[in-house]
Amino acid sequence: MYCDYFGFSEKPFTITPNPHFVFLSTVHREAFARLLYGVDSHAGFISLTGEVGTGKTTMLRTLLTQLDPEKYTSALIFNPCMSGEQLLAGICREFGIEADEKNRSGYLDALNRFLIEQNGNSRTVVLVIDEAQNLIPDVLEQVRMISNLETEHDKLIQIILAGQPELNAVLRRHDLRQLNQRITVRCRLTPMKLDDTVQYINHRLKIAGSRIPDIFSPAAIKRIYRFSAGIPRLINVACEQALVMAWTRDIRSVSHLVATEVIAELQPDDEHIGLWNRICSWLFARK
Hints:
It is built from 13 helices and five strands. It is an alpha/beta fold. It folds into two domains: 2-20 and 192-285, Helicase, Ruva Protein, domain 3, CATH 1.10.8; 26-189, Rossmann fold (3-Layer(aba) Sandwich), CATH 3.40.50.300. Strand 3, helix 6 (137-147) and strand 4 (158-163) form a beta-alpha-beta unit. Helix 9 packs across helix 10. The radius of gyration is 22 Å and the shape is elongated. 37% of the residues are buried.
């Protein structure tokens, strides 16, 4: 494998969300700071939006791993394509809550008792719902009802809604205006600039254990940046394939030529546009 060839302890450019490889670009650092502020200030509702592949899930997982388990209780809902009752059941399951009755009312009562108990123990409860743009309005309204669980002085649960930009359009619906008005902290991820892309690639190489300097030439990185437009997932795809090509050719660096050849294979032409769309759909589905 190319890992042994380049001296990596693990693959540096997998597309699975891995907090071990997290790199906070200028944009990511600002969004991350806003997330922390929203949670620490008990804002109640926080939104995180960004195009597919910009690193939302990685950032969320990093946030959850950095919350002190002595002070925070957290849960992540990753597949929100469900009914309101199913969502409540999923939330209770993730928090380890046993409901006396397996229905909407029973789940809400059990969740309310749990939140009051956690609040009494000075613990902040954080619920993250990823891919929230897929929630239907009725389920989002159920999420708003959960936020109504509060004391006279504080919100009992901090809810982060994360999703693609379509989430903003959903929240602007007239029937969801109460929920939209409650979102007091909004974070947005945009693609990285060239300087951040250079640092991102070198960061992942370093974390993977690379001891070879300048594996990717500056010209190769610029070519990959133009292809990816600064989207981390596409950077990972191009870099992974470039390393494989360099390994098969028994060369220790990725030149502009290698990067160009790899990108030519990744980019669609008229005959393979359908295949390219399927590949993109598969990659972005593994957010």
